[in-house]
Design brief:
The protein is mostly helical. 39% of the residues lie in helices and 5% in strands. Helix 1 crosses helix 4, helix 2 packs across helix 3 and helix 4 packs across helix 5.
Length: 157
């Protein structure tokens, strides 16, 4: 399972907005904070605003802020809204040409795994990811390159 960059950015924008509280933040500020593309963030913020998770204020001193409390923003809903599809394998997508589709049992396993993946997000709200504003300052030391994955070891059969 893998989230698109769009979903990753959507979650990070929401985390940053939550840390800012009622203060209006800008796309430029957010792009600078995360060192990511302003153009890509504009699309993310636009979608999150249209979905009602952010509220935008136009004008010279405009920006955006959360449109609801962090507790009211369910991560599963964000992932479902920002992922274009969950086509893990060919037979999950339009134009399937796999010759074993009629009898293959792999989709049952993958659907169960995908369901559990998204249900995990359903158990959390943005409030569970809350950080303080100082957490968004550039680190003083090196960034730990990888923090996962941490997969459980399968039991031997």
């Amino acid at each position: 399972m893998r989230l698109t960059t769009f979903s990753d950015y959507a979650l990070r924008v929401l985390m940053y907005a939550a840390a800012a509280g009622d203060r209006l933040i800008t796309i430029e500020e957010t792009a600078r904070t995360y060192n990511i593309s302003r153009a890509h963030l504009m699309k993310v913020v636009n979608i999150l605003t249209r979905l009602g998770y952010l509220k935008g204020v136009r004008g010279r001193s405009g920006g955006f802020t959360l449109a609801m409390s962090p507790e009211a923003i369910n991560l599963g809903a964000i992932v479902r809204a920002t992922e274009p599809d969950f086509a893990l394998v060919e037979c999950f997508a339009a134009g399937n040409q796999c010759i074993i589709t009629r009898c293959c049992r792999l989709p049952e396993v993958l659907n169960e795994a995908l369901d559990n993946f998204v249900r995990t997000f359903d158990r959390y709200s943005l409030a569970d990811l809350m950080l303080d504003t100082q957490d968004f300052m550039p680190p003083k030391g090196p960034i730990r390159e990888r923090r996962g994955p941490h997969l459980a070891v399968a039991a031997k059969v």
